[in-house]
Amino acid sequence: MSESASSKPSIERQHKPTENHLLSELSEEVLQRLLPHLELVEMPLGKVLYESGDVLRYVYFPTDCIVSLLYVMENGSSAEISVVGFEGLVGVALFMGGESTTSRAIVQSAGYAYRLSGQRMKDEFNRHGELLMLMLRYSQALITQMAQTAVCNRHHSIEQQLCRWLLLSLDRLKDSHLLMTQELIANMLGVRREGVTEAAGHLQKMGVIDYSRGRIHVSNRVKLEQLSCECYAVVKKETDRLLPRNKVTGNK
Amino acid sequence: MSESASSKPSIERQHKPTENHLLSELSEEVLQRLLPHLELVEMPLGKVLYESGDVLRYVYFPTDCIVSLLYVMENGSSAEISVVGFEGLVGVALFMGGESTTSRAIVQSAGYAYRLSGQRMKDEFNRHGELLMLMLRYSQALITQMAQTAVCNRHHSIEQQLCRWLLLSLDRLKDSHLLMTQELIANMLGVRREGVTEAAGHLQKMGVIDYSRGRIHVSNRVKLEQLSCECYAVVKKETDRLLPRNKVTGNK
DNA sequence: ATCTGTATGTGCGCTGGCACACAGATGGCA
DNA sequence: TGCCATCTGTGTGCCAGCGCACATACAGAT
Predict the structure, then answer these.
(1) How far is the CA of B207 from the C1' of D11 (A)?
(2) Could you give the CA distance from residue A200 to residue A144 in angstroms, rounded to a whole number?
(3) Do A102 and B73 touch (CB under 8 A)?
(4) How is chain B split into domains, by residue range?
(5) Residue pair A177/A217 in contact by the 8 Å Cβ criterion
(6) Which residues of B118-152 are buried (b: 16+ CB within 10 A; e: fewer)?
(7) Mean pLDDT, to the nearest integer, of A100-123?
(8) What are the tens digits of pLDDT across the range B207-249?
């Protein structure tokens, strides 16, 4: 597999808050108010932003990382509830008023995010301006994703779910490479690693992806979409509806 | 099976908005503002409040009915995403800003609800007062329920899920009887009717429930909780935390 | 160049839930 | 009273996904 420059985010790269689509939707006025309090933080693979029940101290606006919201059961097995990238933020419970959630937030793909202290977030939120409305629309998109995850878990095969999962990840990356072992994917989907091996092997045979030792490259996205269940499309369509992407896409 | 007075809600019964726990949490001031616009409506079994994609015209505050949020797939099979009773409201998309959702809302247990036009709801919501904060906390409870549904669908047996489902329903009823065929439960859980028959038969053998032709009576709630997966307790605990003044008490 | 840990491939038996088919039970209604 | 739609029980065959055990393959370190 070829060297992938973007697999390891360069620390030197120029970051700006507007790489996050929510921040970029804010008016200049609100953004200026927030800017002094937005802190760029590194998001290494596996970092846990919060555990189930933790009181959230920050909200995170990813720029080029991906964060999974994961539920971990008493016996240790897990299931991904939803995934957040540059289109969203981690920590809706802060402004929803609950302060904590029953899930864990863990970095699934390394990168960076801007974080904002819970208090600053609430201050701005409580001004009842555009930030509030934007956050609510995003929350609804998140709800849609969770609902669809429930449906998918009930009705679709591992292969279909893998396709969905790959597509959701792909949409949050700047290229078609992801760093992710089959073992980790299995944890996300809540299935056996061997099941992922089998599904991934099949996708590889069909020329849709190729992978090796934790690096996955999607070579035929169109086919991937065909092989996926309807769940991906439902979530994507609804997210686009709720958060029509601003003209500046944020890429390069 | 004994006659159950509340199985068929009496039209003559006195209803008041504060039977809904969200409405009952509002201050006198806000409630007085809303009262003239709250309209008592009958909620017959099977009534569809809205379909996937519909623009919502009302929010519904159930008093003694139960509403399921159901996702229906392209091939017609379905899965329940969450359930709403007197502790909540149907139509969060209205104030979340999306105006519609990808799921269907359907009455699972007949009764009544107070409805409020979308515009009135938004007007009050936009005053940015207590209603807003209350709605957000409720939304988070709903999110928790959806997340747990996803987990449950992935990891637990039909019997465990049936227990969870019965408990969620029970908490929203005034007695221990529910009117619900195994066929309908199967649609909710997104499983085969035969699977529900088997699980229900087992629960009956263990003396936890007894049922016949669409009437289910829970005779041993404690055991039902023991047989359920952790998902029920997680949702209940979190709901109680988020909406403390209105603990869903369960039945005697 | 070898070692070693991590990642992936494979085989086997098992079980839960599926699809389909049909039999029995029951209650509402003519 | 008897009919009939609806609801529930059961059986058979099938397969996806599981748990377990182990065989490879590869990458990076020494």
Answers:
(1) 25
(2) 26
(3) no
(4) 3-118, 154-240
(5) yes
(6) bebbbebbeeebebbebbbbbbbbbbbbbbbbbbb
(7) 95
(8) 999 999 899 999 999 999 999 999 999 999 999 999 986 554 4
**Which among B70, B94, B99, B102 is positioned nearest to B84, based on CA atoms?**
B70
Tens of pLDDT, residues B179-218: 999 999 999 999 999 999 999 999 999 999 999 989 999 9
Angle between helices A130-155 and A158-170 (to 10 degrees): 160
Could you tell me the pLDDT band of residue A38, with boundaries at 50, 70 and 90? very high
CA B166 remoteness from chain centre: 11
Give the number of other CB atoms < 10 A from CB of residue A182.
Answer: 22
Is the pLDDT confidence value at A13 over 80? no
Contact residues on chain B for A140, CB-CB shorter than 8 A: 92-93, 96-98, 101
User: Given pLDDT bands bounded at 50, 70 and 90, which one contains residue A246?
Assistant: low
3-state helix, strand, coil in chain B (%, to 5): 45, 20, 35
Q: Which of A73, A100, A189, A238 to mutate to test the interface with B (most CBs of B within 10 A)?
A: A73
Task: Determine contact: A55 vs chain B, CB below 8 A.
Answer: no
CB-based contact, A30 to chain B, within 8 Å: no
Please state the pTM of the whole predicted model. Answer: 0.89
Q: What is the pLDDT of residue B168?
A: 96
Least Cα separation, residue B11 to chain A (angstroms):
35
CB A90 within 8 A of CB A62: yes
Mind listing the pLDDT tens digit for each residue in A79-102?
999 999 999 999 999 999 999 999
Best of B68, B90, B96 to disrupt the A interface by mutation (most A CBs within 10 Å)? B96
Classify domain B154-240 by CATH number. 1.10.10.10
pLDDT of residue A244: 87
From the options 2.20.28.90, 2.60.120.10, 3.40.50.720, 3.30.1340.30, give the CATH code of A3-118: 2.60.120.10
> Gap from B185 CA to D4 C1', in Å?
24
The CA–C1' separation of B192 and C19, in angstroms, is 10
